[in-house]
Amino acid sequence: MYRTAIVVILTASCCFVSEAQEQAPAAAPNQAAGTAPAGSATSASAPQSSSQASGMPPEAMARKYIEIWNTADKAGIDSFPDFIMHNHGGRVRVGPGMLGRVISTWRKSMPDLTFTIDDTVAQGNKVVMRVTLKGTYKERLFPESGDPQSPPRLIHATGLLMFRTGEGKIQEIWQELDESILRVEMGAQWKTRAELAGEAESSKSKQQNETPPSAPPPKP
Hints:
By secondary structure, the chain is an alpha/beta fold. The protein is built from 7 helices and 7 strands. The chain is 32% helix and 27% strand. β2 and β3 form a beta hairpin. The protein is elongated.
């Protein structure tokens, strides 16, 4: 099976899981540039979380995470606490180093990458955000996506992020991005797992057939 580039990303990426395997894919509280104001529905009866007691509400923490993706601010990345990322059924602990590499990889592919927060729902220590991802595709991101074209393709996809906060920081993130749309917009062709497996087997057989036979041992 193809391994994705460094991203679950956020990932999806998808990318966070791939990054972890290789080692073993908005503004807070102000709105970041390039993002739209988000609506918020917060339960008045929800108990106050430890993150709220620390001074920064859970929604502000979630916006800070989006802001880091939109700005790639190194200081913000380096100071971002570790968290657990859930993506494609995988689970991996993400620290500043991994987060920085994933963001760098995505922004290298789409230098103008922007996440806009369309809706926000906050309840207790959890925040759910509906986001829109936009960017100009200039470098291959996924192995199966196509090569960038001239003029570059404009990428547009949507996703959901759920954050669980505690002890004054983001503890976990669940990410669901429409990566099928991302790949198609990047020039990939939709293929079933059986088709992908068949292509991999065919490529392996071709490589074996093209390998020249080893020279016979010298005669005594």
